[in-house]
Amino acid sequence: VFALIVFACLVGEGYTNVPSSSNLFCIFNHNEDACRYGIGIGVLAFLACIFFFMVDVYFPQISNTTDRKYLVLADLGFSGLWTFLWFIGFCFLTNQWAWTRAEDVHVGADSARAAITFSFFSIFSWVSDAW
């Protein structure tokens, strides 16, 4: 859910333009990489959650203990990696938001803050998943 919120905030209002131009730029200090990173990890986290949910649904039907072990280790490894990536994303978005000038933000400030906040919450949800 947190990944969806981050993704939706960045896609919905993460890009804006000045009234005199039709060129879109990222609301985070005009840094396109900040928006791309948030969108990328949000989409991949959501898809991974769907995949691991399906694995959990079919887990009792998997009789091979080696396959079960590898699936559990994949879930653990992915959760650990994604905890780290969400931490990097939170730090990156927060840093870029701190350097954003107030006059560059006409619409989307709340979405930017929501993306930062839910990136922070995602760290703890992935840690708890790994635990």
Automatic annotation (TrEMBL):
UniProt keyword Transmembrane helix, yes or no: yes
Protein location: Membrane
UniProt gene name: Syngr2
Predominant location category: membrane
Ranges for domain MARVEL: 1-131
Transmembrane segments: 38-59, 71-99
Descriptive protein name: SNG2 protein
Membrane topology: Multi-pass membrane protein
Family recorded in the similarity comment: Belongs to the synaptogyrin family.
Signal peptide interval: 1-16
Organism: Chauna torquata
Keywords tagged on the record: Membrane, Signal, Transmembrane, Transmembrane helix
GO cellular component, one term: synaptic vesicle membrane
